[in-house]
Amino acid sequence: MKNIKQIGAAAMLVAFFAGLTGCDSMSTRQRDTAIGAGVGAAGGAVIGGSALSTLGGAAVGGVIGNQVGK
């Protein structure tokens, strides 16, 4: 069951990064925030396996991604 979650999280991450290619009008900070949220969501899904852990991971990853370029 854990392998299925990992495959799903990896597929979500690939789709997320593929979607970012259409976001050329984003600033660097916006792009970093979006990437951080996507990576955090994937990490939360793999670690916790619930919607709450996915949302928590997205929130934390978004904040971290936003603060990276400061």
Plain-language structure description:
It is a single chain. The chain has one domain (2-68). The termini are far apart. The chain contains three helices and no strands. It is mainly α and 70 residues long. The model has no long low-confidence stretch (mean pLDDT 80). Helix content is 81%, strand content 0%.
Rg measurement, Å: 12 Å
Poorly predicted sequence stretches spanning 5 or more consecutive residues? none
Chain-averaged pLDDT: 80
Head-to-tail CA distance between termini: 39 Å
Structural class: mainly alpha
Cα shape: flat
Task: Give the biggest beta sheet.
Answer: none
Number of strands: 0
Specify the oligomeric state.
single chain
Q: What string, H for helix and E for strand, traces the elements in order?
A: HHH
The structural domain count equals 1
Total helices: the number is 3
List its traits.
about 70 residues; mainly alpha; 3 helices; about 80% helix; about 0% strand
